[in-house]
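Appendix B, example 12.
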Amino acid sequence: MGNLIISDREIVAQDAWGDELPDWIMTLIKECDGSSQNKVAARLGISAAAVSQVIRKSYQGSYDNVAMRVREIYISGDIDCPAIGEIASEICLHWRDEIRRGTSSDPQRVLMTRFCRKCPRNDPKSTKPADTATPEADVKLVFKSRRFADAKS
């Protein structure tokens, strides 16, 4: 039997979580070991301290939210977006975050706002499969500029 090398983070996580670590915790540890905790935290949109607390199981926030972000960014593959087609799940997460931050008159953001609000991936409590969202027939994916509309009138 060969030597098994375990990182310090994994030892800490096993002490806190037990021997059966959740898949997303193992992914989080491997990503931190592969680059840095600060880079992983920045990509997840949380602080490096929060990453450390999650690994140590002392985080006061929502573990479900962190688990969802780790899975979306590091584990999930491509998804079928009803608005723009096949995209990486990390891009989907980015758009969902953008929609929650507020509105804008940018045509791409308006389009994504319409579709993201109806998409089952946008509701973490939803039990529907991710690919059930379909565009409405009356929503057009082509935008006309205001200059074009003003010139016609």
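Confidence is low (pLDDT under 50) at residues 126-153. The beta strands are 78-81, 85-88.
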